[in-house]
Design a protein that fits this description.
This protein has nine helices and eight strands. By secondary structure, it is an alpha/beta fold. The protein has an eight-stranded mixed β-sheet, with helices on both faces. The radius of gyration is 17 Å and the shape is globular.
């Protein structure tokens, strides 16, 4: 298995695809054992992708200490340096977008371009939905709430009119949750996520930034993405037809991002 020690953490990482290099940082609870993942996306056909399980998740070790957003960013930076990947494009999705903001701010020399997808800055720019508040729900209640938040069109009327489709979404959510996940590591991630606030520092991002979001996202709302765009001088903002999973829902999303990344 491809493990490497970076920032004093044994990190499980994976590379694949071909073309210009890109670091992909996944969202809350990301685990490379769960498919589909970024290697099943159009990005893998035209980019050499480096991605990894973040601390406390998947097969990466879970230090028994509190985690900070700076820790997650420094993990990513140390991984790039250990593998001698220098100044590459970075794409962060949801929580990964929060990490990518910190990475661009703390280690700008490693980041050539930055794609921030369905994410938030925290602070004055707005926080993503506090997922830690769902911990008291049963598993099925939590899945239902997250699915409704992920696409605001899935209100009660929609669910009643599309019961078979709704049940299919719930079943996919259940299948994506591994019984052997590190519960403590996942909770530490949620605590770090709740403390995320890059708002005041965002103007320091000097590299080209693409902000990509879903029009119906209730986890990282349109207002949050728009706020980031107003705070970053070199930012381009684009919304797609979908919610928090717009990268899957709108087939034009990945081609647009790939075109923006260039050669």
């Amino acid at each position: 298995m491809p493990f490497i020690q970076a920032n004093d953490v044994d990190i499980y990482y994976k590379t694949g695809g071909q073309g210009p290099r890109i670091l992909f940082i996944s969202g809350t609870g990301g685990d490379l054992r769960i498919r589909p993942n970024v290697f099943d996306s159009p990005l893998a056909a035209c980019r050499e992708i480096l991605t990894f399980d973040q601390r406390g998740l998947g097969q990466t070790r879970a230090p028994e200490v509190p985690y900070s957003m700076a820790d997650y960013a420094d993990d990513a930076a140390a991984l790039l340096q250990a593998l001698q990947w220098q100044r590459v494009a970075v794409m962060g999705v949801s929580f990964g977008g929060m990490v990518a903001q910190e990475l661009g701010l703390r280690h700008p020399d490693l980041v050539a371009k930055l794609v921030l997808a369905c994410t938030s800055s925290g602070g004055t720019g707005g926080a993503s939905f506090p997922l830690q508040e769902l911990d008291s729900l049963t598993a099925d209640e939590r899945f239902a709430r997250q699915l409704a938040l992920a696409d605001l069109r899935r209100d009660e009327a929609w669910r009643n009119a599309n019961q078979e489709r709704w049940e299919g979404l719930l079943e996919m959510a259940r299948a994506s949750r591994r019984d052997d996940r590190n519960i403590e590591g996942a909770q530490r991630q949620l605590i770090a996520r709740a403390g995320h606030d890059c708002w005041e520092r965002l103007p320091e991002l000097a590299m080209p930034v693409l902000l990509a979001g879903g029009e119906y996202d209730g986890i990282a709302p349109v207002a949050n993405m728009t706020a980031i765009a107003q705070q970053v001088e070199q930012a381009q903002l684009r919304f797609f037809a979908g919610g928090h999973l717009f990268l899957i829902q709108d087939k034009t999303a990945y081609p647009f991002i790939i075109d923006w990344l260039g050669d």
